[in-house]
Design a protein that fits this description.
Elements (H helix, E strand, L loop, with lengths): L1 E2 L2 H12 L5 H18 L3 H5 L7 H4 L5 E2 L2 H7 L5 H17 L9 E6 L14 E5 L3 E5 L1
Antiparallel strand pairs: 1-2, 3-5, 4-5
Length: about 140
Amino acid sequence: MLVLTAQMCMAINLYKECRGTSDHECQMINNVVLNRVYKNNNDACEEIFRPGQFSWTKKTPQKLEFTDYDDMVAYYKINEAGQLARAFDNVNKSIASFSAPNTNKTMTFYYDNTISGNPPAWAKRMSVAYKSKHFIFFNA
């Protein structure tokens, strides 16, 4: 039996959220997850699959136990092994460089500005912390 760890959940999230973007953007996305984990005192899997946090989780509900690796890959529709390996590498890099936030002005939200030029309604009440080529990151 294969049980997903926090790192595996983060890698799947990066696989879904940042294919086609830079490693730096992937690590920034993972920092958002880590900031939420720290702020809410949750596990990464709990944060990623909290309702409304990531659009891909609406279509793919949380499942943490699988018969084997192939079962997990099929369930989460992971078709590019190299991209999943890249996601794991970015998870490891972001975890290694993460330090617990010491302020309330911590990036805990982002959106992909290449999908729509109009920011989501929730973004209007937050301050922009960082802009990259594909994403806009916000302080809560």
